[in-house]
Specification:
Layout (H helix, E strand, L loop, with lengths): L1 H17 L6 H7 L22 E11 L8 H14 L23 E5 L7 E2 L3 E5 L28 E6 L7 E3 L11 E4 L17 H10 L27 E2 L24 E2 L9 H9 L23 E3 L18 E2 L7 E2 L1 E2 L10 E6 L4 E6 L7 E2 L6 E7 L6 E7 L1
């Protein structure tokens, strides 16, 4: 009985460890040291205006080795929505902040948009997809360089680059702090904790890993200053011994708590589960906005106008041709009634009702999307009469449930 009890405790501890948040930013900074002190000279451009909403253009580099890692547009858009709510204090779960801390809740007046203009003036949707032969990445910046199996950053003075990929081990993500090398500046997030829908895993399924790592990108430290009873440099975050994980109960007092209220464990810069972190403080707001000042490392972002599609001066940015690990659908799977096609695309499937709700997309062989719709019943035909003769890619479904066909239009 004693052996069984010990075994159960060991299993419980292992599962708890597996479900614990692991931010790789601190370890990353140990291997990528730099001096991140503010310049005393102005960096050019304008200063921030009091209470202005600072808009940050974002480019998402999706690096995938298999279909499951090639997350959907809907999952990406859900993450942008989470960022915009969390940084504007529009997230409804902030109501869970204990009363004694509610006065600290800050609307940081920072917003995020998927870029509409790519380098070179191309129009874009802000999402870049690239197949990689790397099954999972270490937190060593390989994903940030094409020569190492990743994708090169867009101009980091004008865009927040976010690389979404498979990470080795338990690290959920990491970020470059302000002042680091420009060609590796940005945020890296594991594909299965990005956004709040699609292929996300509990308890990191609310998009808060990205909120946390973007906080680092904007200059915030962890609440405990990454040392026992350390200092994060923010006046209104109570001192705490170390990180909290899971969903602590208030009050959560630690060895260095200064009063009966204890730790600010519901803050985005702690390690609680996604559902249990929901606020930034006024002091953190001031710190993050300071990086956009005239002497701040991210001041140039104020001169970035890539969120406005009207500034595009060229056609659509060429996209990589989508890949799949299934060359031809096997019997009993989704098939096309005719191929080549002339006027319509019609599906053959054992149970067409199962197609209802799946997205259908048509791409050129250069990756430009020409058609997007959601199947209502699975019985409908897709009109392709308007397409010129040629070869196209038909994508049905997303994630691991995705089917890709080469379609010849005659």
């Amino acid at each position: 009985m004693r052996y069984l009890t010990g075994l159960l405790i060991g299993i419980f501890n292992f599962l708890a460890l597996q479900a614990q948040r692991n931010c790789g930013t601190v370890e990353y900074l140990k291997t990528h040291p730099f001096v991140a002190s503010q310049n005393i000279t102005e960096r050019g451009g304008r200063d921030t205006i009091i209470n202005e909403i600072i808009t940050i253009p974002v480019v998402i580099h999706v690096l995938y080795n298999n279909p499951a890692q090639n997350i959907s547009d809907a999952q990406i858009l859900s993450q942008i929505d989470v960022l915009n709510k969390d940084y504007r204090a529009l997230n409804q779960d902030k109501a869970g902040t204990p009363f004694v801390f509610q006065k600290l809740i800050a609307d940081c007046r920072i917003s995020f948009c998927l870029a509409k203009v790519a380098p070179g003036g191309y129009s874009t949707n802000g999402i870049i997809r690239k197949y990689t032969n790397v099954s999972s990445f270490l937190p060593n910046d390989d994903m940030k360089f094409s020569a190492r199996g990743g994708a090169d950053a867009w101009d980091t003075k004008k865009y927040l680059n976010i690389w979404v990929c498979s990470m080795q081990g338990r690290i959920l993500g990491y970020a470059a702090m302000p002042g680091g090398p420009e060609n590796s500046d940005g945020v890296v997030i594991n594909y299965d904790v990005f956004g709040n829908r699609g292929s996300v895993r509990s308890p990191f399924d609310k998009g808060r890993t990205t909120t946390h790592e973007v906080g680092h990108w904007l200059g915030l430290k962890h609440l405990w200053g990454d040392s026992d009873c350390g200092d994060d440099g923010i006046d209104d975050t109570p001192q705490q011994y170390g990180y909290n994980y899971g969903c602590p109960s208030f009050p959560r007092k630690s060895l260095c708590s200064t009063d009966e209220n204890g730790d600010l464990f519901m803050n985005f810069m702690d390690f609680a589960n996604d559902a249990c972190m929901f606020m930034f403080t006024q002091g953190q707001k001031i710190k993050m906005r300071s990086v956009f000042s005239k002497t701040g490392f991210r001041n140039a972002m104020l001169q970035s106008f890539t969120c406005d599609s009207a500034n595009a001066s060229a056609g659509p940015l060429p996209q990589e041709t989508p890949r799949t690990t299934v060359a031809e659908p096997i019997p009993e799977m989704l098939r096309l009634k005719l191929n080549p096609v002339s006027n319509f695309i019609e599906f053959i499937y054992k149970e067409k009702s199962l197609l209802a709700g799946k997205q259908v997309q048509i791409f050129t062989t250069t990756g430009a999307r020409l058609y997007h719709a959601i199947l209502q019943t699975g019985n409908e035909k897709i009109n392709v009469n308007y397409l010129p003769s040629g070869i196209y890619l038909l994508v049905v479904g997303d994630g691991a449930d995705r089917n890709i066909f080469k379609v010849v239009k005659i």
